[in-house]
Amino acid sequence: MSLREKLGDRPVMLEVIPPSRRAKEKSVVRFIDSYVQKALNTFEIDAVNIPEIVEENYRGRPLYKNMDPREFSRVMRSICGHQDVIVNKIVVHCRSGHEELAEWAFVTTEDYGVHNVVAVGGNSSRHRYPGPTVLEANRMMRDTGLLCGNIMIPERRDEARRMLMKTRAGADFFTTQTIFSSSRLLEVLRTYDSLCKRRDVDHATVFLSFTPVSDQNDLDFLHWLGVEIDPETERGLLAGESKDLARPSIDLALANWRRILSESSSYGGIPLGLNIEYITRHNFDDALEMGKRLIEGG
Q1: Proportion of the chain above pLDDT 90, given as a percent
Q2: Does this model's pTM top 0.70?
């Protein structure tokens, strides 16, 4: 079954950060054998989600240090066999605008055989980016037949309304920012459900993203990425005697997942999925343990 066919049946994706674009072929193959194949042997994964890693300078210009997600997906599938993949594209960096994005979508489908895409916006509202907006990208992806997703940030203002607009433009699913507290997420889901029903719009699937953390450095890195971790939650993670935060962070993810599922009646028929992250490679084994517990706990 394709990912499109699985969207209503609590699908599971694993987010895999592509190696450096300067990595040698043997290193890339070793990475796939050591990480991706190990994950595929640990629990059932419906899709591998491959982000596009970009750093922006003060003008919003992109710097690409990691492999193109499409090229990484090609190598990965040649080693692991057939596997549904999702490639992320930061659409606002298409310098020639809609024409460049249309060409990217065509090549993604025809040359790479990838049919699932997450269209991502820019890092800052202060910059004037040359490429299409996410809404424009959604419409283009829909017209080309690609399964299209977007990013959901529960703490962002008017997020439910943004989700409705993106759904109407063609978003089939959303992946959330990493979740450490379920309260704000549940508020957004309830409002999104209400807006969809009021306007007779089918819900998109929402993939909830969870990651383990090992120490304060991981928490600092997540803060730098823009992930919201409220002070009370952070204090709770750091309160134990052990300096290793993996176990309490996995327990926290499971508690949030169970709470969200237990309150499903409050947000109607929104289908949910899981996006298992690991942030940095030293957390990979803990991410596999977390994934197993979340799947079993759901």
Answers
A1: 83
A2: yes
